[in-house]
Design goal:
By secondary structure, the protein is an alpha+beta fold. The chain has four helices and four strands. The chain starts with a strand and ends in a 12-residue tail after the last helix. 9% of the residues are buried.
Length: 112
């Protein structure tokens, strides 16, 4: 699934209403580039972030750290991939298998 809002995936847990609203607002305003889901259950398996040069800016690094913290707290892998013109499906499959297991990722020899 492309461009998934973190608010569609995660929720804030806090007994303090002020913290709850603050955390919810931070989560709602963030997206992940792709979300890989189990094709049978649509259960999220991992998030994918494509990192272009903008991710070198300090504001983007802070945003990226927050997104990683949310995924870590949810025990959901987040894979960061350098943005390129094209990708090897075999290389991507190998990378993704490291995070979700070989039975869930099919690959071909085409470039993506």
């Amino acid at each position: 699934m492309p461009q998934r809002a973190l608010g569609d995936l995660f929720y804030a847990k806090s007994h303090d209403p002020s913290n709850y609203r603050s955390f919810t607002n931070k989560i709602d305003r963030k997206h992940v580039d792709f979300l890989l889901c189990d094709p049978k259950t649509v259960r999220p398996l991992l998030g994918i972030e494509l990192d272009d040069k903008s991710h070198q800016r300090s504001d983007r690094r802070a945003r990226d750290e927050f997104v990683e913290m949310v995924f870590t707290a949810a025990k959901l892998p987040l894979v960061r991939i350098r943005a390129r013109q094209s990708y090897s499906a075999l290389e991507l499959g190998s990378l993704l298998r490291q995070h979700i297991g070989s039975n869930n990722v099919e690959t071909s020899s085409q470039s993506v």
